């Protein structure tokens, strides 16, 4: 009963944010403007605000689900794509695209997301390979491994920036801040949609396996879970989502850390309920943060990646202080 109420409230929250966010911005848009057919406000709503909100909902849901999967597979609430350095991997593909003068996304099937997907797979493979070197891989070492991988890929990104001209370098810098502040169209939404849909479908399908993986690999295997195949499938799904999202929005951190943890506190660790809750809350959270980022420093728009980092940094420290660093999931 309680879980149903929480899911219903999260659904209402997500719908409310989706309906209200298009009307928030430096240029106010009201229902009265739309009713009276004002061309400027109508164009702003349909060509700028609605695609941006749709992309925010998709990106928030995908990033939150990716964080939830990492926390379950690694059995630690500190494990997310961002804290383990994954966004720096897929960031290289779009950087190369910018350097070559190619678009970050093309309607339906952009090359940028596929390059980003390859970088995400490589990063996850490196982190997962390190955790498999020996049993009982401590959280401190796992986080340091993610930091090392992040620093390595970040140095490659800096090299690409250094070799680029001023215009491309500035574009890369703004893109690396992560956000939806650039001109977003429905083409961008169509680019991300199939990747996030496929990834979330795989995660939802494997919720039972996720529950068993949180009890440990040996116990999960004894209950009939094909552990290696399940992990590979989940990592592939996460790479699809994170790669496509990062290719279009840039790296947006800490959504995958905060959303699953907050939902776990509210609804419990059962992934049959935690998965839809995380998807709904992650979508609402990022979209709401983006709406706030539009108006918090007028007349400029703050990249939402900066705002989520300002929120996620203290949240990460709170998690560290509130638990043993090597405590499992």
Topology overview:
Blueprint: H1 2-20, H2 31-35, H3 39-73, H4 88-99, H5 111-131, H6 139-162, H7 166-176, H8 186-205, H9 207-213, H10 217-222, H11 227-249, H12 255-267, H13 271-295, H14 304-321
Helix pairs in contact: 1-13, 3-8, 3-11, 3-12, 3-13, 4-5, 4-6, 4-7, 4-11, 5-6, 5-11, 8-11, 12-13
Short description:
This protein has helices at residues 2-20, 31-35, 39-73, 88-99, 111-131, 139-162, 166-176, 186-205, 207-213, 217-222, 227-249, 255-267, 271-295, 304-321.
Top keywords for this entry?
0% strand, ABC transporter involved in vitamin B12 uptake, BtuC, mainly alpha, 329 residues
User: What is the helix content?
Assistant: over 70%
The helix/strand order is HHHHHHHHHHHHHH
- Can you count the beta strands? 0
User: What is the CATH topology assignment?
Assistant: ABC transporter involved in vitamin B12 uptake, BtuC
Beta-strand percent range: under 5%
Q: What kind of sheet is the major sheet?
A: none
Structural class: mainly alpha
Total individual domains: 1
Q: Would you kindly provide a written description of the structure presented here, covering whatever features stand out?
A:
The chain is mostly helical and 329 residues long. It has one domain (3-321): ABC transporter involved in vitamin B12 uptake, BtuC, CATH 1.10.3470.10. Helix content is 73%, strand content 0%. It is built from 14 helices and no strands. The protein has helices at 2-20, 31-35, 39-73, 88-99, 111-131, 139-162, 166-176, 186-205, 207-213, 217-222, 227-249, 255-267, 271-295, 304-321. Helix 1 packs parallel to helix 13 (271-295), helix 4 runs antiparallel to helix 7 (166-176) and helix 4 (88-99) packs across helix 11 (227-249).
